[in-house]
Structures
1.
Amino acid sequence: MQSYTEENYLKIIYHLAEKTTNVQTNAIAEQMQTKPASVTDMIKKLADKGLVDYIKYQGVTLTETGKNAAIDIVRKHRLWEVFLVDKLNFKWDEVHDVAEELEHIKSTELIERLDEFLGFPKADPHGDPIPDKNGRFAKTQFIKLIELKVGDTGTITGVSQHSSAFLKHLEKLGLTLGIPIKISDITDFDGSVEIQLADKQVNISREVAKHILISSNGKN
Amino acid sequence: MQSYTEENYLKIIYHLAEKTTNVQTNAIAEQMQTKPASVTDMIKKLADKGLVDYIKYQGVTLTETGKNAAIDIVRKHRLWEVFLVDKLNFKWDEVHDVAEELEHIKSTELIERLDEFLGFPKADPHGDPIPDKNGRFAKTQFIKLIELKVGDTGTITGVSQHSSAFLKHLEKLGLTLGIPIKISDITDFDGSVEIQLADKQVNISREVAKHILISSNGKN
DNA sequence: AAAAATTTTTAGATTTACCTAAAAATTAAA
DNA sequence: TTTAATTTTTAGGTAAATCTAAAAATTTTT
Ligand SMILES: [Mn+2]
Ligand SMILES: [Mn+2]
Ligand SMILES: [Mn+2]
Ligand SMILES: [Mn+2]
């Protein structure tokens, strides 16, 4: 059994490992909002427990055990987010912090029943996949909206930025999950993207377009 | 803001204060499953924070602030228990431990929405009253089943013992919340109580009868 | 391949919540 | 009202998770 803190380290290492194989001390420190020296201490502890492989100065990778533990926490986090949005009517920009706490509640029974209560959802309110109780989930192939060309169509199925400010912005524009879109223009001047929605057109900056994930209906 | 541990101390002091005015160090230690020396340490800390009044060797009492904090934790505990039973189909003997963890999740918004989602319940699965968001709740006047005389009738509305063993026992006998009962006999030999239910008679020991709470329909 | 910059680790402290053992105060018994 | 038993506190320490400052290793730049 891991401590609250150890669980947070595992989860953060897991997420960082989605981008780089060997996760660096400084990167962990930044995510954990702590100092590199503290990270080194914790890494040693996790290595002693067999949760990470660690070579001094070379960063860490999760062991199979460590990865499973991390995925379990991700599962809990995302299920709780679904609960908060679907059952308690939270907005998608309001759920992350509470889920950060709820994910540490230790009860397998609780999570299985919650999963059932929610109807075994496949994705959380931000479009991120929810691992099943065996830790399995489809590695979804999203395209970043910014990679689409004029005329391409698709459906918004995720975001790669979870800050409240960003999510509220999308909400205001009507760019929420499940919304079908078509790229109507890409501005020469600043590269901003004009998007055709069912009832209106909206213009978003490249920065915003980078963080919207699309399941493409095929290019044209 | 209190730590997880401080919250547990406050809650335990609150419950102990329902029986005695000045709560003793040893009593707290027993409930907290820790040593008296540790309790003294924590009491000093809580006193410094203005959550308890403390005179050396004289025990503690909660301040107004401390009491409010304690009631808030009790509220969360009981609401989560209702959630677990009503929504996730846990049995009344399975919810306490998980609620012990959930009660520490820090989000006023979460609890208010949960309360609403549950339909603003007035009592938890054990019949204990749930304080409203202002900390107010009716001080329910229960009679212990053991105090009833032959011929008295009433309804089971609470239990004063929350152990899984006890609750499972009651469940098996059909003695659950809301069940109307009538005392049909009190055995001379061992003082055990014979109870008439809608469809059957059951016999319970004095020890069990002590921990069943009845809202009386009046004596006869 | 040095020098410079960056990253990571070690060393030594701090804080929180514990602990044991022993001293002090209070309460109960003789 | 002494003595005995109980309760509570103090003193001194431990383990987990931090921190700062300084040393060591690695990487990047000249
Ligand atoms: Mn989240
Ligand atoms: Mn999410
Ligand atoms: Mn309970
Ligand atoms: Mn209860």
2.
Amino acid sequence: MADPQYRLEQIIKVLRDKGHRITPQRLALLKIIAKSEGHPSVEQIYEQMKADFPTTSLATIYKTLTLLKEVGEVLELNFATAGSHYDGNKPYPHPHVICTRCGQILDRKSVALAEISQEMARLTGYEITHHQLNFFGLCPECQKAGPG
Amino acid sequence: MADPQYRLEQIIKVLRDKGHRITPQRLALLKIIAKSEGHPSVEQIYEQMKADFPTTSLATIYKTLTLLKEVGEVLELNFATAGSHYDGNKPYPHPHVICTRCGQILDRKSVALAEISQEMARLTGYEITHHQLNFFGLCPECQKAGPG
DNA sequence: TTTCTAAAGATAATGATTATCCATAAAAAT
DNA sequence: ATTTTTATGGATAATCATTATCTTTAGAAA
Ligand SMILES: [Mn+2]
Ligand SMILES: [Mn+2]
Ligand SMILES: [Zn+2]
Ligand SMILES: [Zn+2]
């Protein structure tokens, strides 16, 4: 679907243009989120990082993710369950479908959502900057497994 | 809009029917969330509780809110910012509009949302149980105050 | 090279929530 | 009524993700 290589260069360019350095550690993290199909958690990114940089600190992961949030190149997802997840391929708001049993996170889009957003702005007078729309339930796999 | 007294009795009945006791502390908390127009935080509920029960423990607040979640009589809102908020009047999923500056939380509804939910279920095969839809931005008041 | 500063790494601190443990009060049983 | 049982309240410790702090390191610039 997406082109990890292009996405990687895209993020690098944004960071460079804003005067940030592309260090080996950052490059490694960028590769991870650029190639990620799903929505990795901090812990998952941390584990992958340690493959190339065994001495990586969790603090570095958090700092880099915060930086990416600031420059708008990653979308942070935080549900009730502890631990944020990150989307490095679609850094703009979009709907997600989450399985409450296995934790799968799917990307979706919805044209109607833009309309709802405008409707909300009109009705409330708000200047809406972003939104989050999450659907929770059981994925087909977990439905087969039955209740329990 | 809503009738706090009726809402209160409604919650009491659900708790009683499921074999839970209506203690003085619980009754006090129920009154607080039944009459609340907004979406109080744990800390706000805690402060109000201390008016009637100065020795109330935060643990009791959390336990009671967890109980109310379990019986489906309160909706928990958790955004990125630390600290959950609770809606005791509309315990079912519905859209919220949140000001990122002053923290105001508005209730809204959207007919299109039900359709989107069904669309998601159809496209993904998920059995969707609930959702969350939050819009973030600046309320009219905070817009006047200007950037900064 | 030397200097300057961003970034990495280690670790402590924070803060919301949860767990634990005991005291207590409310039902139930006798 | 009295006793028994159990749920609940209250105090406090523990947990866990995230952030802050501090020092070291490394990359860019001079
Ligand atoms: Mn996504
Ligand atoms: Mn609400
Ligand atoms: Zn699943
Ligand atoms: Zn505001």
3.
Amino acid sequence: MKDDLQRLLLAAVRSLEGSLLPGPIDPQAVALERTRDAQHGDFASNVAMRLAKGAGLKPRELAERIVAALPADPLITRTEIAGAGFINFTLARDLYARELARVHELGEAYGRHMPATRRKVLLEFVSANPTGPMHVGHGRQAAFGDALGHLLAAAGDIVTREYYVNDAGRQTEILAVSVWVRYLERCGEVLPFPQNGYRGDYLLPLAVALQARVGEALRHPAATVTMDLPADAIPGATGGDKEAHIDALIARCRALIGAAAWQDLLRSSIDAMMDEIRDDLAAFGVRFDHWVSERAFAESGAIDRALDRLRERGLLYTKDGAEWFRATQFGDDEDRVVVRDNGVKTYFASDIAYHLDKRERGHDQLIDVLGADHHGYVTRVRGGLQAFGHPGDCLEAPLIQLVALYRNGEKVSMGKREANFVTLRQLREEVGNDACRIFFLMRSNDQSLDFDLELAKSKSNENPVFYVQYAHARVASVMKELAARGIGWDPSRAQATVLAHGAELLCGAHAEAMLSALSRYPEVIRHAAAQRAPHALVHYLRELATTLHAFYNAERVLVPDEAQREARVYALLAVQQVLRNGLAVLGASAPESM
RNA sequence: GCGCCCGUAGCUCAGUUGGAUAGAGCGCAUGGCUACGAACCAUGAGGUCGGGAGUUCGAAUCUCUCCGGGCGCGCCA
């Protein structure tokens, strides 16, 4: 609807180009927006105010010239110049009837855009380390990434969703050694648990499974295991180094059980964690196209090739026994190590290569959804891409702020390596997927989120999830009532009625507000996608639901007058469709009854 | 110290190429079911948009500065 008007306005402004207005005219300057106040019509443009200076005219004078240049079109029933130079447009009421018909015709596709050129977007999100179960912070990232993927696809991008599995590196070794210590405990050995290990209960089943699989084959006396290890950093005690301690413990484990058993332990531990993460995501309704293994990626030689190319370009140098990337040439604060003095490549080296690979697979835009604590990392990865000649702005990283859970007004503590933190699974089981999704999404991603467990569970009007779903269910309920009363329903006849007389049948403030909100949906999708802002859609759905509830309370739907009844049912079904489409983008269900 | 995010109604928050009288939910006050779902609706009160300066026809929005809160600054990932 907006696009049609935009074309007319642009044509009018273009017709003045060269004569009244100095060219060339930036189409971006010819902006239209929905009016806040119905007294100002349906749409308003500030183009006259923006171009007045260049034209040497007062804004209101230029506005008049633009209005005079507008092509005659039945679309516009009234134009008005108001305020400092706004041009207000009032559109033909039957346009809204036509929009209703469009919703019915397009169904699930209503609101989707198909631009002439579609960008290929690589969306990476979650990518949680396989060292423990997903926690609520990952849940927010998953909800955001999934909704953003749907949004971008609806806006016309070609979206690939990817999860980068960090199945290589030191963290996974710490995982494996943590499992081994739990296993030793089960075998009856008594030894201190390393401070830097993963101490969560979730590792116990892995230790049990290991014991069932290998018996006592990997058992060694506690004294042998801990002999001459560097002191651990015990809380309250002085001295000790938890990093040195656990590294030595890893080396000890490897030496005692042998390389083959170590690899097996490592791999089975990672696999078990990844299985759990995959299950969690699937149960949450989050889907990925690719699961990229860091280990496989490294073994393919891609990282070495990327480093070679940087070396050829003179962007690496050696200092203090390590190899450094000249990140400062690309705006970073300092140069960054890619190969440590022990010869091991850093995570950063792998990420340079991985992001380069994303581009070389043909993606125009790379989006990394990251936890807010990773923000310092973006500049250097972008620098890595720029080193290969890619534009810096092809990588963007929406940052997801922390989630704090509240139960009975009290904050629930959640340390990463604490024994009991709240997992995504526990949260989902407590409040349900839908509430989980909407609560994660209703705030801007760069706003930290207070998640009120009681509120999410409450079936009260404080809970926005139910408010929107209730609007959807209410329409379903009307249809059930219609069937129960034996009233016939013929969609094509209703459509004919609405197209012929919709403007008269669906008049009044409540109906008009509802139809106006409905017709905004495609604009909301485009805006929310462009801004990477799923929360904008949540707010919109609430507004649309409000207009439906208001209409419903003001007007009876199943009235004796056949045309009136058809028109109202037809409108309600269209709103229901848009609610369903929007909820689907957010990954929430649209129930027929509640 | 440097970098990023945040500060808007009592509370939780919307408000991005700068636009008209700054919005919503909750809470509070009052009213609405012999009714297709009251998990709803209607009306009302409630604001120095953290402070100050600047840019301009116009600033919650852009710039600078100060204050307050969060996060990050490793040859970890």
4.
Amino acid sequence: MSDTTDHKTGRPTLADVAALAEVSRAVVSRALSPSPRPVSADKRERVLRAAEALGYRPNPLARSLTTKRTNLVAVVVNHIHDLSDLDLFDRLLGEIQAIGKQVLLLKVGSVDRVEAFLREGVAHHVDAALVWSDFADAATVRRMFRSDLVVMMNGCHDALSPAVVPDEAVGIREAVADAAAKGVHSAALVTGRASSAIEGERVASYRAAFEAEGIALAAVLQGDYSYASGRAAAAAFQHEATPDAVFCTSDAMAMGVLDACRRFFPDDRPSRFRLYGFDNLSITDHDAYPISSIGFDKAGFVEHIVRFVVHPETFVPGSPPVGVPTRFFPRATG
Amino acid sequence: MSDTTDHKTGRPTLADVAALAEVSRAVVSRALSPSPRPVSADKRERVLRAAEALGYRPNPLARSLTTKRTNLVAVVVNHIHDLSDLDLFDRLLGEIQAIGKQVLLLKVGSVDRVEAFLREGVAHHVDAALVWSDFADAATVRRMFRSDLVVMMNGCHDALSPAVVPDEAVGIREAVADAAAKGVHSAALVTGRASSAIEGERVASYRAAFEAEGIALAAVLQGDYSYASGRAAAAAFQHEATPDAVFCTSDAMAMGVLDACRRFFPDDRPSRFRLYGFDNLSITDHDAYPISSIGFDKAGFVEHIVRFVVHPETFVPGSPPVGVPTRFFPRATG
DNA sequence: CTGTTAGCGCATTCAA
DNA sequence: TTGAATGCGCTAACAG
């Protein structure tokens, strides 16, 4: 008779299954292992039956302690709103679950938060950390999760960690070329947080494209990616001379600009300037915000990330970030 | 000389700290414990210094194995898009992290997925599971995570698990009363998935409110909460007699209805019918979708959930779900 | 193929 | 206050 069950917590352990099936713990471990391991057919059968009878559920934590694999993948963001791209995130979550791992979602909206995590040491070990937050560099994240595998999507990578970033220059060139072809000679740029590495490169790409197409950069307005900041920025167009085109580094800001201008110039049917956004949010497919935008293939993006998680060995230290090409998506405002 | 470091993995363990500080492992454990425990000042000092020198980070998994607390909280959703309410989710994530726990995000878009989790037994032990997905009942979730504490937000609760649900009837009555006060006599209802428990109650609330206000229910159209399904549903209004008002059980569907009607009746300035949404999404504060809606206090909602996580003992088995009152948010379309 | 043994990293008895 | 010993639940290494 097994008397190990209920010794502490009510939940049956592997030892209980072994006792009931009258085999050793090792056999139970092997029979229940996801990977095929040598167990005779009849013992396997007895084990499965016993596990079923007891309602046994393995404890992944205990397993991790010996295997050194937690099947946990951290996703680190500034705020949930970084995932404005819910489509991308939904797909990512699905793929991670499909490879038998689970997502630990962390938001670290400031450098303070990162340091707090480090100090308190509460962050779980994970098999991999996927970083969108730009408040954390690769080295810090490696310490934070004691994981050697961190994939950086925030534009800050180092030699030891792979990175996947949209190659934004391509799409930006296409968008600016589109504007030029339509007779645009002057443009304003509405930007996000200047401190972010990605944003710096993005702005540089716009400047280069304007230069190449002979478009004058009439103004640079500072926003924070949000709808509200887009609206605020658009106030500049109400009184001053409006440029031929306005480029925003996020669709949300472009939506704000669009709404502000609809209010300023209610009867201005053919819009007073061409408007270009960034992100290719799904809402730009709604009638109310038909904003020409720049986006990338989400499936491809996720595929690269997951590949690093599944085959970390394919990463050669020091290699450059994997670029996912962006492209221009023309819509009514462009 | 300590030779325990680097024996397997390079990461220092508690034993390494003990060796360097020249104290026992127990002392290190106590000195580094979050809760105050008896350690002499000088030893504590030596331990902290040694831990710092080694870059020691405790392993939460190993700790969990003995404490039976993982500091993990599962959030279970159908799809990420359930979190249309990103504001709510962002706040929830913040609060959970504030109490020293971390969020494990699971999507189980179908009953199959739930069963797969159960079968594969890969779900981590968690301190609590917060369930939005309506593909999982409380008992199943308890088995899934071997956790006694699951909080149901999907409308399916049982005697053993607490539940927090918006009290939708209040807001619905207010919205319908608003319509009645404005002379609405007939209404159409655009609904989501009929199978969901929440949706069933919601529809019943609308029916009751219509009845109470003497509004005739002209049509019930089936959607799936999405923008696209709202657009499709609106086709019915193009040819048939339009009702005085259209009530949608999600803002996304209301947005679809609005855009479809703008297209059908482009010059119909004073809209042909009043439109009411549900969820009070932040986008309804944008100019383009000024949809009167029904929402609830997100801070209060999250507060209730977190309270159950922190003080599970406050839940009395068998008690009814905690209701968070909703209210009507009038906007231009109402 | 099987069972025994020895840890994984930590918290917690219990004596001292 | 301290340290030695024990065990959490499981897998891996080894010998049969």
